[in-house]
Amino acid sequence: MSSIRNFYLHSRYLASAAITLLLTACGGGSGSLSDTASVMHAEPQGTSDTSAMPTRIDDLMARIGAPVRPGTPTAPVTKPVTTANSTTISTATNTTIHMPTGSTSTTGSTSTTKPRGQTASLTIYKGVNLSGAEYNNSNPNARMGWDYMYPSTAEIDYYAAKGFTAIRLPFAGARLQPQNNAPLNATELGYIQNIVTYSAGKHITVILDPHDYGLKYDSVSGNMLPLGMPSGLPASNYADFWSRLAQEFKGQSNVIFGLMNEPNQQSPTQWASVANAAIAAIRAAGASQLILIPGTDYTGAYDWVSGGNAAAWAHVSDPANNFAFEVHQYLDSDSSGTHATCVAGKGSTALVAATTWARSNGYHLFLGEVGWSQDPSCTNEGPAIMNYTTTNADVWIGWTYWAGGPWIPQSYIFMLDPANLANPVDKPQMQVLVNNLL
């Protein structure tokens, strides 16, 4: 089994390298590789423990056909907020419902109770994952523009013109903090700051996403180690990382802190301890922005309740009371996003259990990854899951489709970027997403 997996990993690396060489020969694709203000995008590749950590190249090539994850997600969950007097809940990008504390409102045909966890008006964030900066995520010395890539301004312009209000930005924590409990790498931080600044001018919020699957680079061993486990790094190590990152961005109103992408080795309670330490560090740094909290088991929506994440998050320690739970959901048979086909009825049912749980506990949910192919089996399922989040906007504060990115092949089943950003022709999935922006 390990030899087969190594073959797949080697194949993925060769595919990524071939794409990189081609883009370099052609002048860097949609953006200048030497201009950090216009280059902003990427996805991860290798890790020290490949059996436990699927990477984004893993996900891409796997979602095209090769198996990636030992287990995969299927049902959503989340948590909300309470305020002292009244809360304004936005049910669309330009619509709000004013609700006094403890009151209920009706969104569509659903009567809802005001969620907890947010002290200001609830904004709806709808957008796309721009993959690329997380490639080769275990290599702190990887070369920007060769081993990984940030998104281009042209890419951001395209989604801004469509009316998207959010970008989830995957990046590698190993390159941002290559030494344990040490200052952040100024060059890598600069790439991220360029994206945040440019996006602000386009009225786009950037979700900072350390795309590391519950692991963190350990400069002592040179390996990616699980956080909050006896065999790994302590929660305090990750708290240090987030304290430093929050200090850098606490003045940026268009920034959301996404704690981690898809933790999967920790138990729900182990991961909750790590996440709560990170939340405390962010607030101690003086940052008040929204925090997105993932669960373990790849933060799948399908088993959030049955898998133990719901029980582990019965209480959230957030002094600012400004958080939501991030879940991921795909529509194939095992919710892994590795198959082109969709399961009939899944689009309208996959999020129900998590939504019910979140609503009953007064929590909010964010759909950090969702995607479907152009296969006929997905014709109804893609629109159904997006419509579900729209009609249940009292719980769902938004979504980011997986994925766009300059180094993702156009043949990738979930690819959202047009083939030519200068003269774009929208992918079929785009119309479904645009229909759910309002």
List the helices and strands and how they pair.
Blueprint: H1 2-25, H2 56-64, E1 86-92, E2 95-100, E3 104-107, E4 110-113, E5 125-130, H3 153-162, E6 166-171, H4 173-176, H5 186-201, E7 205-210, E8 215-218, E9 223-226, H6 235-249, E10 255-258, H7 268-284, E11 291-294, H8 309-312, E12 323-330, H9 346-349, H10 352-361, E13 365-371, H11 381-391, E14 396-404, H12 428-435
Parallel strand pairs: 5-6, 5-14, 6-7, 7-10, 10-11, 11-12, 12-13, 13-14
Antiparallel strand pairs: 1-2, 3-4, 8-9
Helix pairs in contact: 6-7
Can you characterise this structure?
By secondary structure, this protein is α/β, with parallel strands linked by helices. It has a single domain, classed as TIM Barrel. It is built from twelve helices and 14 strands. The strands form four sheets. It has an eight-stranded parallel beta barrel with strand order 5-6-7-10-11-12-13-14. α6 packs parallel to α7 (268-284). The relative contact order is 0.17.
Annotation keywords:
single chain; 438 residues; alpha/beta; TIM Barrel; 8-stranded parallel beta barrel; two-stranded antiparallel ribbon; 12 helices; 30% helix; globular; disordered N terminus
User: What is the overall silhouette?
Assistant: globular
In the CATH hierarchy, the third-tier topology is known as TIM Barrel
Q: Largest sheet, described in full?
A: 8 strands, parallel, barrel
**How far do the termini sit from each other?**
47 Å
Q: Proportion of β residues? A: 15-25%
What is the averaged pLDDT score? Answer: 79
